[in-house]
Fold:
Amino acid sequence: MRYTKIYGTGSYVPDKIITNEEMTKFVDTSDEWIVSRTGIKERRIVTDQSTLDLAEIAANRAIESSSIDKNKIDLIIVATVTSDYAFPGVSNLLQSRLGLDNVMAFDINAACSGFLFALQIADKMIKSESYNYALIVGAEILSRLTDWRDRNTCVLFGDGAGAMVIGKSKTNKIKDIITASKGDTDFLLFSKNPDIKDPYVNEISSQDHIHMNGSEVFKFASRIMPKTIKKLLERNKLNINEINYIVAHQANLRIIDKSARDLGIGMDKMFINIDKYGNTSAASVPIAIDEAIRSEKIKRDDLFLTVAFGGGLTWAGALIEY
Ligand code: UT7
Structure:
């Protein structure tokens, strides 16, 4: 039986910091409201970089920390909702930037759960012995889709990228992954593509923004995150106390806090960086895992859980021994 493990992780956020105070120049909001309702103090946004640029820096950092010859990578998956082009995908351009040959590269869109969906796909492709080493990236420029006049959404999001190199292993380290979807027919969280522009449609085409029913998404997230964790524990016959650490999608500090209470654990077991970056969608989980590893909150052989939810609606979780 072939197993998989994490070889390396990396992440990158752009230099430009937008504090809550600066947000008050665009919209009717306050530092007090944003911090108390979300836990966000500041976020990063790009000025002249592309999603590919962010992905490339995070990918190089992950490859560097993996200590494997990058030419061994035979699969690249990029999770994003903010690809620079309709096509080619960020993954295709990344393959070229990294100078890799003989690679299968493709993008996926599962919103904020995208990175864990990509992990699930890569894990299975390696376990099936079709591929050996995968570079998985979550990269987003959410500021591209943000309506900077809408206080309900613009304070929440940020830009960034996270990456991971996984590959074949003799020991079973990436132990279990759950991925799931429920079609959002109520349109709780979405952003439309530009309108059709054929000669028979008399509309001006423009890029849509993010639309969200915050309180409904909040209720969904607060329910699905602990439920997914409990399911992973149950099917792996584990107790929450046997888990060293939890890395959850950074969407709202209150959602993470509610999940911790539901699971009967302290916030000291939950990774937090939402205060610095806001919600970076598909980049949120890999940035958080990378920072948790680099700050030694997750150490070698630690058992950790990671969990995400997002537009789609989608949700996912993974049980990993580092
Ligand atoms: O990756 C997944 C993506 N999304 C999420 O995870 C988001 C999940 N939802 C949330 O995080 C929360 O629902 C929000 C942070 C978006 C909103 O927090 P809330 O406690 O659910 O607030 P609310 O939507 O119930 O709004 C309360 C009030 C409203 O005013 P009124 O109608 O009561 O007068 C809003 O207009 O807060 C107002 N409000 C704001 N006030 C100041 C909404 N946004 C802001 C703002 N600054 N930025």
In short: Residues 29, 33-34, 37-38, 112, 151-152, 155, 189, 212, 214-215, 217-218, 221, 251-252, 279, 310 surround oxa(dethia)-CoA (CB under 6 Å).
